[in-house]
User: What shape does this take?
Amino acid sequence: MGKFVAHLLHIPFVSAPSLASNDAPCSAITIMYTPTGTYHRGEVFPHNPRLVITDTEVIAQSPIRTFIAGMGDALSTWYEARTCIENKKAYNIVNSRPTETAVGLAKLCANLLYEHGENAVRFISLFQKDDKEYMKYRTSFDNILEVNILLSGLGFESGGLAASHGVAQALTVFESMDKHYMHGEMVSMGLLVMLCLEDKLDDAKQVAIWSSKVGLPINFNQLKLPEFPDDPLMSIFTETALKQWFTHNEPFPVTAEKIINAMKQAHLLGLQIEKEVGRTAFDCYH
Assistant: This one.
């Protein structure tokens, strides 16, 4: 909301996040929600923050779950940018085609997360226990902090969004989401749905395995959602997902039926991976 106030007052905005739970600090966007936590709309401003400052020690002392949620938000950056670059009719949030630089940053996001994500979580856990072994994982923490705030922020803004964020924003129609889950956790589940929607099941499996190891949700049981598609809110959910313009950055027509089928497929995949890999990390931080 600080960005909005700065915009209205015509003054520069400086961002100093105390959490790395999402990629908003570097962006020129403010997302607004209703008092009940349901997604309302996004506002794009003409300028990004003048300065972004992070104190790594403050971030390292923050709840681990918030950092993990930021990783979930960041991982989607690459897959959504890939969708936008492959679909010649897709546009980013400033109504332009994705740049190669943005796609490169988005790809770097994913590479660093797969390489350093688990060790970054270990760093925070050990740091908060004052266990000096944390120094082994300092590089991983620094890399993922850069991913969560900088690379993902630049990547999503210029690379573009797709159905992953469309599903994530639509999940806010369920009351339990606002009360119990963070944006990055919803995006993490939205990414699995998007990859199933795109029939990129090898990628979906890789994402689910990695997510289960770091503590992100990989099925709808972990989000405490009712059985779908019987829940009466499902029609509102799909309607909300379809209202997000970036949902239609997918290279094919997206319908309510396709979204529900992809949700079922993602849910079943997540249950399978949960059996194979376990849910120790998820239970540890939830």
Notes: The radius of gyration is 18 Å. The chain has twelve helices and four strands. Strands lie at 14-15, 29-33, 39-44, 51-52. The domain at 2-285 is CATH 1.20.1090.10 (Dehydroquinate synthase-like, alpha domain).
